[in-house]
Amino acid sequence: MVKVWLTSKNIKTTRPIKKLSERWLGPFEFLKNIGSHAYHLKFPQHWKSVHLVFHVSLLQPVKKSTIPNQHQLPETAVIVEEKEEWEVAWVLDSKLKRITLWYLMEWK
Predict the structure, then answer these.
(1) For residue 47, what are the contacts with CB-CB under 8 A and spacing of at least 6?
(2) How far apart are CA 59 and CA 108, in angstroms?
């Protein structure tokens, strides 16, 4: 089973600022070649609105870690009704900056 990372530059997210988004999404399972430069990926069931075929320039192979006993953590974001939702472990801190309340969170 070959896994690849997908660049997020062409994927619309719900984050208000693009530079705060993850640069790479995944890892996703590679299913088959479509021609010489396109690949079909297997996405989770809740990613219904994302196209499944991507050009090779948008993909990066997953490299095995050189650190012993280190494993890739599974993705924790869930897309519910076209919006990402993350599960919060607890709120570590908060501060008021101008008129906006900012939170420091620990995610599950």
Answers:
(1) 79
(2) 27
Helix (H, G, I), strand (E, B) or coil at 44: coil
In a domain, 70, yes or no: no
Residue 21 lies in a domain: yes
**pLDDT per residue over 63-76, tens digit each?**
877 777 776 666 55
For residues 46 and 88, membership in a common domain is answered with no
Asked if 42 contacts 29 with a C-beta cutoff of 8 angstroms, the reply is: yes
pTM across the whole model: 0.57
Angstrom distance (rounded) from CA 57 to CA 87: 32
**56: its two tokens:** 């090779």
Residue 40: give its domain's CATH number.
2.30.30
Query: 5 lies in which domain range?
Result: 1-65
Domains in the chain: how many in total?
2
Q: Indicate left, alpha or beta for 89 from its phi (over 0: left) and psi (-120 to 50: alpha).
A: alpha
